[in-house]
Structure formats: structure tokens, C-alpha cells
Specification:
homotrimer, 422 residues, 11 helices, 29% helix, elongated, receptor (chains A, B, C), ligand-gated ion channel (chains A, B, C)
């Protein structure tokens, strides 16, 4: 027992360190130091300083709400479905609120007071034009994918002004059908004034690992300023203002309002919170960039639009009611808000990990120099002799054999076997 | 000064390499080479080739917009709230546009022309059935969580056809109340034709690190094809068509339209962009998979439905007005679109990092062989002698002691102390 | 040929192991063992056990749908636009369904039966108050950013009860304009009962790497319980109930219903799925936490509200129609649902990687001890002698020179050159 304890204690006070061949050579030393310099430079310069390898990082978590403001006035007294009217936020933001995105209508084709009945189909639908009832009768009950309802079987005059005299099959559905052609009479989009709308983007973020919460309202500004300011990327003060004029967003992305307002499009607003929390948290401020996400060179997928409708019932004189709806084909700009960013803060753990992997990488310089010394240099045989101690397993067993003469004979067979197999 | 410089210069031209015991043994050599083979095979075969360890990677960023097309016709002339009517995209997509998702109504319970007044409560609400006013009077002002309004205190005849003769408490609220039972009279969902609706999914993606932008429209197809094609996973051409028939989505996920259309459900459309940018960017194309997200075996959480209403005012003869609304309980399929994917491109940094960690891993084979050689092999004492150079700290201090005789005596006490404590 | 094969075979049966100086020293041994203990403790205790370094991990993928229930009754017979009425789910959830979020209206300013015409502007708009037509004439056609339409040029009496006698410019737009002041007459929010609303959150998740799908419905509960239960964080059973009373969510986040209901706000519901799949999958259950995301100390960004409208047409006696709308300024609570979590499962690969980097880290203890032994200890020269074998490159070439006498003379010049440059 005492022996075991003593040998355990002696094992405890031991320490192993590799034996080193220390070679003094200008050529190899130079290679060695040069490689070490590159590796240390990479670790310190790139990994630790440039990549901030001494920092622990945390991804941003975010909540965004938006509020649009602005009034548009349309003066199309010749187009009865639009007329002279004012469009406000409840008219042009659809749906009224969303997460991380909002839609602003810039152009619209209203089709008012539709009701379920029968009427001539849109003459631009493929195969809908007819000369007599026979053709339509053969399609009775069918509905074209791009049509507005099932065909009743009658051939009637189109009610589209541009297709005066054309005959089309009659359909059953929401009548009258939408006439998309209306837009071609317009010189500019209906909500031309939408370029001046502003959006107030409220962005609360948190870096959960560091318990840091921020928002995109400048800390040092008063309410007076915040209620009047407008974002301007070129102003050192206004570039933190969270109120954006739509045309500013577009022009910062290199888009002309005229090129997107008629047919719509998809824009991205990127809010970047890249924060170095080793400095004051006051320096943790957002930066905004803007870009267009859709590219419109194919005919079938140009722009951004969708249809929505308000339904309502109208009482008839006999006390019964009829369903009506106002249909809108809304063209406009869909804004997606992406909040990204990472915060870094000094932490001993990533620093040690990077230093550790740097030390491991230093071994690479030894490997390369070894190749030079042992395989390339003229004196390679000499260096190899100094670095390597050649041991043959058979020598070990010769010694064993000699020692074995004193060991009991029952072990001898086993040991012979080992000698042979090794 | 010159001495310091010279010794610094000499230190600069040095190079350290570990001294190695080179053991020639079939047994250990075999183990060593076998382990090295496994490690090198793992590094090259798995990490570098299979896992593409030579590539830098970038996650996909994406924007999705959708456009539904299709017409449904319902022919329920016996159910007055539905009747014979056509349902179009403005009727069945609610809300009209969303980010990364869309909802298609497949079944509906309309309750038209509701207005704020008093009426009999839904008789299926627990505890609402009564025999006389006394019971209802005791509940006056209370509202059941699943009820439609506060109880007025009167006991009245139910107006539900299936509960003819049943008496229920009267409530104040939107009247008449919704009668969910209507659906049980239907043999198939109201928007039975919704199986043929198509959705055009426009997906613009970008891999920010590589500056590669793509969209899910085949580059080499003309507008003619794109306006007519339909997705088909079995066709080498149509599997890139971004227009999906709803029934195709369901059947690819192993779902029968009949099993989801009546009560609704939640489907996921996964668009996967896994791109190897070492090849032509033309090969960076999406693949689509579909699955059902909700599983409906518990009664309380089956399917997917929600209620929405269109409100409107109706002028009365005396010039005042009254609020009305049409309430819809919409059953349908909620489609969530998930865009995922990673692009890889050759980069020297991850390749070096993987080779580096591979070299470090090679050390494991030495450790395992050392265990075999030093603890298991018969000749372990011999090998240990060759590997280890035994040094006792006391020897160091004996030498020191001898050398010390020449050092000034004031240092001697300190050095003795060291000798004792080490 | 046979020679090459034989030497290749002999190289195959070799094995290199570093030669070690084994130092027996209490002081250094102690430092060494202490450092090793810290490193091994860090690896095993922190990395492997605490951080579960033996597990492969997978991030959660999730789909959330919500369903609100509850009835509110408002009894403001003195405010005609609200009156005595019942609010149900189709009234207070706007839009009716969203992904990962929902909005509950708690307070509202309705402006009913607006139509496009001319009327006095809101007197609280800056610069709108006038004394005579001249002032308004100078602003004709302009619209204030916070106004409701372009100015017609007339100066008229305000129709706001609180601004009796004030004159303001007339505008063209949706008339009458919204009177936000109405709220100041209320002692409590219109939908005071919204505190009792409940939301059923259906959350289906999947850990794709492990093929594990779960949902937030307790497996072992019957439909009876699930249709009646309410979430309670203090109950071991009810803390898994997926039905949440709104006031419970608020109070768990430390928010009084009274402090958020009048002006609205943004709340976050975090569903955390942190699962150890080494145990039964039945233990993989969600936990819920709640917090408020917006902080309201600046005037301009307090609370959460937005405007929406229901539009409808009204037929006039002459058969033509006029557009009307009901405008609502909706105050309420926006709930964002964040699903997060990671599942871990035993896997040999991360375990080996962590053990591997742990072994590499052990080298640090040798480096530190080497510093102590070679630079600090009194016997450093002795130890250095034992660890290092000093080799001068010039010795190598002296030997070469001697050997060279037997090599052909044409190589001699080249070898001399090498000797000089190394």
C-alpha cells in the first residue's frame, strides 16, 4: 500500500517535455522565422485585431413597427371610378399593419359596385371572343384560368370602350368585370403624390447575450426634432432620423420613382446594427441601406400588384338584400424590412481559443522546416541522425530474451509468440 | 550592445525541431499507419470532399411574393347565404397579400347582414339552453367565452333550423348569430374548385457574400412558356416552372385534397437553393418540396379556420344610419413558404483550416501508438528507455551547488532555499 | 525494383514518437499537474458536461397559428360612433390572421360614414387655424403632412366640440375628419373586456436533423381538458396549456393591463423548445416567456396604433352611387411570437472533436512549464542541456566535406556554395 502511494505521489511530481534538436542554420532559421512571422501576423493581425477574435458575439433580435403618413390627391374627373378624391393612409396601406413589412399603393384600377350577375367577359382573355352563341354554348360551364367566371353560353357585345363592336362570351360572376386597360389612359400613376409619403420605422432591438436593448430613436434628440425630421444619408444628424420619405428610399437605392410607381415593385430596407460594445453603448446606432429586390425584364412577372375587395350588402325595396363589392387592383411598392447585425464584447474565452489555435498553427512552420531540413538540404543525413533515434523492435526482444532466462518457463511460450508477431 | 545584437541575430537564425524515436516494428507500425489512414481518409474524404471543406459558404437571403389565379363556382341555391355565385381571388385570398405565406379559402360559413341587436344565442354553447326567463335573468350581463355577446335576461326560441323548439337565452350583439351547423348539410366544400387554383411564386434570392443574385424563373425559357407552364416534379423541364396547381402541392405532400379542404390545414412549401458556385451560376436552381405542418388527431385543434367580416353602414329612411356586417368563417389552407439554402465557393482559408485541424488530429495516432508501445507491448521498458530521458531536479541543484562555490556568498542562502523547495 | 518495394514496406512498418525529457521535480510537476487539472476540468466539466459537447445539435423549425376567443361589450351610449355594442373576434383581430403574430384591438376611435367631400380640417393640425379666407386661399391645393386633404381655400368654423368657435381652413377629402380627442372623454379603453380574451397558440415544430416533430399540445391530456384549460406558469399542469388569457401574458411580463390598453404596445411571446433528445422525446416540451418590446418614454412614439377602413357604396335615389367608409383608429397590443430552441442528441463526432481540441489544449501546460523550467528555475541551464541537442549547420557540412572527397569532382563546386550560404 505504502509503495503504491509513494509511486503515485512520485508520478504526481513529474513533468514531460519534448526533447528538441536545436539547429543553428541561417537558411532554415530564416525560413522558420519567416513562416512564424506570417502565422503570428495572421493570428494577431487578422484573426484577433481585424476579425475581433477577442470578442464574444451575439446576433440581434428585433421588433419593427411602421407608421405611414401622407395624403394623395387624384384629379381624374374623366375616370368615374377614381374621380377627384383624396387618398389617406387607410386607403393606401393594405393590409393596415404587418410585421417587418408594409405596402404602399401607388397606382390602382378600381372596379366599383360589382355584383353577382351575368355580363360580357374581358375581351383580352384568350379564346373568349365569339361570333355566335354556338361557340359559347360549347364552352358552357367552363371557366378560363384568367377569366372571371363560368361561361353561360351566350355571345354578347363587349362593354369595354376599347373593344367597341367585339363580341365575347357572357360569364356569370362579379359584374361588370375589371377593365385593366383603364391604366393606359393615364399619363401618371393615380397616387402620384405617394412619393412624398413618409414612413416612421420604430425598431426595438436586443442583444440577448449582453442584455443590451436599443431602439432606432436618437437618444440625444428631443421630441420636437423627432416629429419633424426626415432621414438624409448625407447629414450627420438626419441619418439617424427614423422617418423616411418614400422617394428618398427609392433614390438612395438608385431607383427613379417614375420607374416603379406605375407597375409596383419590391424594395428592401436593411437596418444594420453592428455594435462594438467595448465602447459606449451610445455608439451602438443603426445604419440604413436600401435596394430593389425584384428585377423586371420578363413580361409575365413585372412589378407588384394584387387584388382586394370591400364587400357590402344593399337592401332592396322589398326588404331583401344583394351583395356588392368594390374591387381594387392595387399596384404599389412592397417594403421588406430586414434587421441584421452582431454585437461584440471582449471575452477571455474566444481570445484564449484563438491564441490556442494560433499556437497549434505554429506547428505548421516546424513541419515545413522539417521537410526542408530532412529532405532538401545537402546535410539532410546529418540532421536526420540528430533528430531521429533509430530503434528496432527486434532489439527490444533480444533484451527480453536475455532477461527471460531468469523468468519462470511457463511465460516463455507467450513471449516467443510476441517476438514473432511484432 | 554589440553582444546583444549578435545574440539576437543568432537567435533569429535558429530553428527547433522535436527529437523523434523512430521505431521499426511491424505491429506498432501497422497500427500507426492504419490510424493515420483512417484520419487522413476522414479529413480528405469526409471533411474536404464530401462536406466540401474547401468552400466558403453563404446563407441565402430571400424575398417571396405570390400571385393566385383561379375561379370557383358554388351552386348552393338551397343555402341562401351562398347561393349560385363565383368566387375570385379577391374573395378567397385573405389577407390579400402577405410575406412568405398565403391563405386560400376552401370552405366558408357566411353569415350575412348581421347588425347590433338582440337575438337567440347559438344553442350549442354550453349552458345557454333555458326553460324560462329566470335562468337567463341570473346570467344577465354575463357573456360566455364561446358565446356571441352578453345575455339580456330573456329566454327565447332558438332560430337554428336543427334546434327547432329549443329555448335559449337571448344575447345582445351581432345578430343573427353564426350557425356553424350549415356545413353539415354540404356534401363537399363550398370552394370545391379551389383544387385547380394556381399560385405563381416569385422568389428573388441573393447570396450576399458572393454577390450572386438569382430568381426562380428559368433563364432559358420564354414568356410564352412561363405564362402557361405548371410545376411538375417528374418533368425535367416543368420542375423549374414557378406556377403551382394547389392540388399538385397537396398530392406531392401525400395529402388528398378531400382530406384538407373541408376543415383546412397548414402546408409548408420549402424552396431549397443549395448551390455550388464553383460550377456555372446557371446550375444554381431551386428545388421545391411540400409537407403538411399540422397533424389533426385531437378534436380541439383540427384544421385551420378564422373569422373575418366586412362592415358597412346602411342609411335609414330618417337619414340616420345603422352598421351592418357580413361575417365569414373561412376554412382553408395556409401555405408557409420557407426559403433555405447555402452556396459554397472555393476559398483557401477554410481549406487551410481543415488541413490544419487534420494535421492536429494526426497526433491522435501517435498518442494511441504510444499507449500501445509504452504500456502494452512486452518490450515496453526498452521503448520507454529510448523515448524518455530521465532527469531529476535534484541533479540540477547538485550541479548548481558545485558551481555556486564560485558565486558571491550573498546569493547562496537564496539558492539553498530553492533547492529545498523544489 | 525489389529494393524499392522492400524500403517502401519497411517505411510502412515504422512509427515515430517524440523523445521526451522526463523531469522529476516537485515544483514543476505541481505546476504541470495543476494546469492539466484545470484544462481537463474545463474540457470535461464545462465543454463536455455543462455545454453538452457530446451532442450534435439542431435548430428548431416552427409554424405558429393563433386563434382568439372572447367578447367585449362597450356601453358608451353618449358617444354615438361607439354606442352600446358587442365586439367579437371579427371586430378586434386585424388583420384576421397573420404568421407568428396577432393584433388585439383594446381601444378605438371610430369615424363612421365618411364620404369624399369638403369639411373643416382637424383644428389641432399646425397652422390650420385661420381668421379669414385670405389665409386659406394662400394655402389652396396644399395638404399638410398630418392633415386630411388638400385645402380648398375657405375659412370655416371647426366642427370639433372642444374647439367651438375656432375657425379653420376647409379641406377636400374623407369628411367628417377624425376627432382623436374623443378618447380624452373616456375613463377606460373601449374594449375594456379585452383583458379576458384568450388566445390559443398552435405551434408545430420540427428538429430536421433528428426527424423529431412535436407540438405544444400536451400528449397526455384529453380534449376535455384542452378545451377548458388556461395557461398558468405556476401550475405544473397548466403551464403546458396552450390557451393564454391576455391579462396573464401581460402580468407575467410585469405589465399592468391599464398601462398598455389605452395606447397600445408591442409584446413578445417567446416559445422555447430546448430539448435533450438523449432522454425520452416526451420530455421535449415548450416553455413560455413574455416581455414588452416597446418602451414608451418619448411622446412621438408612444404605444401602438394604426388606421383601417371599411369602404362601401350607397345607392342614391337617382340610381347613381356614392362611396362611404367607416374609419377606425385602432389602438391595441401587437403580439409577436418567437419560437426558438435547440435539440441535442449524443453523437460521436462532436465528442471526438471536443476531446481532440482538449488534448491540443493540454500542450499549453507543457508550454507554460517549459517557460518555468527553461527561463525561471535556478537549474535552467541544466534542464536546457537535457532538453536541447545543439546542432550547428556548419558541422553538417564539415562532415559533407569529408565525405565529398570520394564524390566526383564536378559536384564539389556546387556543394561548396551550399556550405557558404547556409
Amino acid at each position: 500500500m505504502a509503495t503504491i502511494l509513494r509511486s503515485a505521489a512520485s508520478a504526481f511530481f513529474e513533468y514531460d517535455t519534448p526533447r528538441i534538436t536545436h539547429i543553428r542554420s541561417k537558411k532554415v532559421g530564416l525560413i522558420n522565422r519567416f513562416l512564424q512571422l506570417i502565422i503570428i501576423g495572421y493570428i494577431i493581425g487578422y484573426v484577433i485585431v481585424y476579425q475581433k477574435g477577442y470578442q464574444d458575439t451575439s446576433k440581434v433580435q428585433s421588433a419593427v413597427t411602421t407608421k405611414l403618413k401622407g395624403i394623395a390627391f387624384s384629379n381624374y374627373s374623366d375616370i368615374s371610378s377614381i374621380g377627384e378624391r383624396t387618398w389617406d393612409v387607410a386607403d393606401y396601406v393594405i393590409p393596415p399593419q404587418e410585421s417587418n413589412s408594409f405596402f404602399v399603393m401607388t397606382n390602382v384600377v378600381p372596379t366599383l359596385m360589382q355584383t353577382q350577375s351575368t355580363c360580357p367577359e374581358d375581351p383580352t382573355v384568350d379564346g373568349i371572343q365569339c361570333e355566335n352563341d354556338e361557340y359559347c354554348e360549347s364552352l358552357k360551364g367552363a371557366s378560363f384560368l384568367k377569366g372571371n367566371g363560368p361561361i353561360t353560353g351566350k355571345c354578347v357585345n363587349s362593354d369595354f370602350p376599347n373593344f367597341n363592336g367585339t363580341k365575347v362570351c357572357q360569364i356569370r360572376g362579379w359584374c361588370p368585370v375589371e377593365n385593366d386597360d383603364m391604366l393606359s389612359n393615364l399619363t401618371e400613376p393615380v397616387l402620384q403624390d405617394s412619393r412624398n409619403f413618409t414612413v416612421f420605422i420604430k425598431n426595438n432591438i436586443v442583444f440577448p447575450k449582453f442584455g443590451v436593448a436599443r431602439r432606432n430613436l436618437p437618444d440625444n434628440e428631443d421630441d420636437q426634432y423627432l416629429s419633424k425630421c426626415q432621414y438624409d444619408s448625407h447629414s450627420s444628424r438626419d441619418k439617424f432620423c427614423p422617418i423616411f420619405r418614400l422617394e428618398t428610399i427609392l433614390s438612395d437605392a438608385g431607383i427613379q420613382f417614375e420607374n416603379i410607381s406605375a407597375e409596383g415593385g419590391v424594395m428592401q430596407i436593411v437596418i444594420d446594427w453592428t455594435c462594438n460594445l467595448d465602447y459606449s453603448v451610445d455608439n451602438c446606432v443603426p445604419s440604413y441601406t436600401f435596394q430593389r429586390l425584384d428585377r423586371g425584364d420578363l413580361k409575365i412577372s413585372r412589378g407588384f400588384n394584387f387584388r382586394y375587395a370591400d364587400q357590402f350588402g344593399v337592401f332592396l325595396d322589398d326588404g331583401s338584400y344583394k351583395l356588392y363589392r368594390n374591387l381594387y387592383k392595387a399596384y404599389g411598392i412592397r417594403f421588406l424590412i430586414t434587421v441584421q447585425g452582431t454585437a461584440g464584447k471582449f471575452s477571455i474565452v474566444p481570445l484564449l481559443l484563438n491564441i490556442g489555435s494560433g499556437l497549434a498553427l505554429l506547428g505548421v512552420s516546424t513541419i515545413i522546416c522539417d521537410i526542408v531540413v530532412l529532405y532538401i538540404l545537402k546535410g539532410r543525413h546529418f540532421f536526420r541522425e540528430k533528430k531521429y533515434l533509430d530503434v528496432k523492435a527486434s532489439d527490444a526482444f533480444q533484451i527480453l530474451d536475455e532477461e527471460e532466462d531468469e523468468t519462470p518457463s511457463k511465460n516463455r511460450a507467450v513471449q516467443r509468440k510476441v517476438t514473432v508477431s511484432s
